[in-house]
Design a protein that fits this description.
Number of helices: 7
Radius of gyration: 15 Å
Structural class: alpha+beta
Largest sheet: 4 strands, antiparallel
Strand content: 5-15%
Distance between the termini: 26 Å
Number of domains: 2
Number of strands: 4
Length: 164
C-alpha cells in the first residue's frame, strides 16, 4: 500500500499517511509527496473538486433522480468552479442548508447524496481547515456507499498530477 507524505511549507512539519487515510486527512496548501515524488500542492479548488467527484460517484449509484435541492446545490458548485467570484457566501450558505434539509428527508442512498452535496458546498464557503474536514467527511460518506478509500486516493493523486 503506497505511503504519502504531507509537507506544510509554512511550518516545516510533515507527516506520513497510508493510502486509505489520504483523502480523510487532506490539508490545504500542503505539498503531497509519494516516495519523495512531488505530486502537487493541495489547493482549495482541489478539495472542492474532490468532494464534487465523491458526490458524482454517489449519484451514479442512486436509483432515480436526486432531490431537486441537491441538484440546485451542485449547480452552484459548478458555477463557483467556473468563476469563484460568481457566487456569494449567502448563496453558498443557503445551498448547503437546502442540501442538508434534503438529507433529513431522504432515503438511505439519497441521504449520502444530499450529505455529499452539502459537504461539497461547505468546502467552498468555509475556512481552509473546515474545508479539509468537510472533504474528509465526504470521503467517509463515499466509502459508506462502497467507494473505497484507495479509489479516492487514486483519483486525488491523478488529479494533482494532471495539474487541472
Amino acid at each position: 500500500m503506497p505511503e504519502y507524505t504531507l509537507f506544510d511549507p509554512t511550518t516545516g512539519q510533515q507527516w506520513t499517511l497510508i493510502e486509505t487515510w489520504l483523502t480523510r486527512e487532506l490539508e490545504l496548501n500542503c505539498i503531497l509527496l509519494r516516495e519523495n515524488e512531488h505530486l502537487g500542492i493541495i489547493t482549495h479548488r482541489d478539495v472542492v473538486l474532490f468532494t464534487q467527484w465523491c458526490t458524482g460517484k454517489i449519484l451514479s449509484r442512486m436509483k432515480g433522480e436526486p432531490d431537486q435541492r441537491v441538484t440546485r446545490a451542485l449547480r452552484l458548485v459548478d458555477k463557483w468552479l467556473e468563476d469563484e467570484q460568481s457566487v456569494t457566501s449567502d448563496e453558498l450558505e443557503a445551498a448547503a442548508g437546502i442540501a442538508w434539509a434534503a438529507a433529513q428527508d431522504a432515503l438511505v442512498v439519497d441521504v449520502a447524496t444530499a450529505q455529499a452535496a452539502a459537504r461539497t458546498v461547505e468546502t467552498i464557503m468555509r475556512s481552509a481547515w473546515t474545508a479539509a474536514r468537510a472533504a474528509g467527511r465526504a470521503a467517509e460518506t463515499a466509502r459508506s456507499v462502497g467507494i473505497s478509500y484507495e479509489a479516492q486516493a487514486q483519483w486525488f493523486v491523478e488529479h494533482l498530477q494532471s495539474g487541472k
